[in-house]
Amino acid sequence: MCIVIDANTFASIFNINSADHQEYRPVKDWVTNGCGFIVYGGAKYKKELERATKYLRIIVELRKAGRVKEIDDMLVDEHQAQVEALVNDVNCNDAHLIAIFRVSRCRLLCSNNLRSDRYVKDRSLYMHNQRPPLIYRGRRHRNLLCSRYIVSLHHVV
């Protein structure tokens, strides 16, 4: 199963001293020891990773271990532009995440940004016959971390 991790949850997942680490630890365990892996791509996501220098090292190590898959940046950026045109709302700051889902067909998001739900869950922003992702927001959602949502990734580099 693949998961897109919103930058707002890096600390929650990877920092054991984070106040809500226990809520997000299942994601870390699933990616590091289970069958899960992280999906990312696009210029905006990479900029967010660069700013999260403490967690960038972890992502690099996970990538070396085959636990991170990168999606074609140009495709993600093209889809991001399409999503931004469809939404046409400055309050939507997660068009890059929707673009990653559109390109990869991944089915799971880890995020604690409630404001973005309105956009992330909007079926009209996805490709034909594509469902919006499910959202992991704590231990109560650990049932999502399973093989049930495995998809064949598209456009992996």
What structural class is derived from the secondary structure elements? alpha/beta
Strand order within the widest sheet?
3-2-1-4-5
Percentage of β-strand residues: 5-15%
Q: How far apart are the termini?
A: 18 Å
The proportion of residues forming helix, as a percent range, comes to 40-55%
Q: How many helical stretches?
A: 7
CATH class category label: Alpha Beta
- The global form is globular
Q: How many domains, in number, for the residues?
A: 1
Task: State the order of secondary-structure elements, H for helix, E for strand.
Answer: EHHEHHEHHEHE
CATH superfamily: 5'-nuclease
Tell me which CATH architecture applies here: 3-Layer(aba) Sandwich
Global mean pLDDT: 92
Cα-based radius of gyration, to the nearest Å: 14 Å
Low-confidence stretches: none
Total strands: the figure is 5
CATH topology: Rossmann fold
* Main pleated-sheet profile: 5 strands, parallel
